[in-house]
Amino acid sequence: MTLADLLTHAFIGYSIGIILSWRYKRIRTPQVTAIMVGAALPDLVRIRLLLDPIKIEQYLGIPFSWGPLHTAGGVLIIIAIGSLLTVPKDSKMIFILLAIGAISHLFLDSLLITASGYSYAVLWPFLEFHPPTPALYLSTDVSPAIVSGPMAFFVKTLDKMR
Amino acid sequence: MLESDRIRALAVITLLLILLLLFIWYGSISPVPEKGRFAGNDELVEDYEKYVYQEVEIGGEVIETDPVTIEIESGDRTLRLKLLDLQEEPDKGDRLTVFGTAEENKTIHVQNALIRPSWRYWYMYGISFVGAGWIGLRLIGGWSFDKEKFAFEPRSDPLTVKETLSLLIRGDDSG
Range of B76's domain? Predict the structure, then answer.
């Protein structure tokens, strides 16, 4: 599975957050951060670099994969847990903010170039389908950060001028 | 502990159990080429012969260039695969992601391949680390954890980066 770099996801989450803050006064600095956290959540799947799923399988004797963390179903559960870890009056809003960030992440990663031309199972377990990817960029490309960085800076400048 | 807190804790535990079930479920799914889910490193290392004449999508490091041979990993085990009909000319040490058909004699008939020099991975991990640091600092500066309520709460007056760093160095949250 290929993933875009986390800095790009942070820039995109930041930009979305700032733009939404112009319309919704309840979105302030901490809420923008919540969107950025949401945009980072699917990358929890990188835990596989530390805890090899194949070794977990061998140890437990049952099938195991961290894959769901980078799909709609797994992310939904993580977001629900995140929103439960806030005070009840905030939890609904936090759920929405985390979801906005996470959706931006899953969407951006579905545009990544793969060798087969098919992306990952974005909507698993609701849909098993791996959608064809428009193959916009590689996870190791420098270009996503070069595009999203100045964009985030531009949004920040607009925000300051308001 | 309040009644509502007990329900909250129960809900979190239930969700974690569901997540664990998803990990097991996902791990048990077999490749379905028609749906874009191809056999990968884990499947081929486990039992190459099972996937002969099937389409596979794998990734590994180039260990030989004539003929181009990659080593794919799964857990502690590795498998060396020769690549046929590769258009590109990778160098030793490059990372290759390959889509193609598994043939007999541990040979992959390549349909498409992506080459990445290994430094690109260092770039990706490095810059991702910067992204994680930025988000982490903002999280600490914008939110505090209330141990009584066992909940995160937005700070009414978010800390600046400097204040966040000094909070991290002091290691307490009295300010």
Answer: 38-117
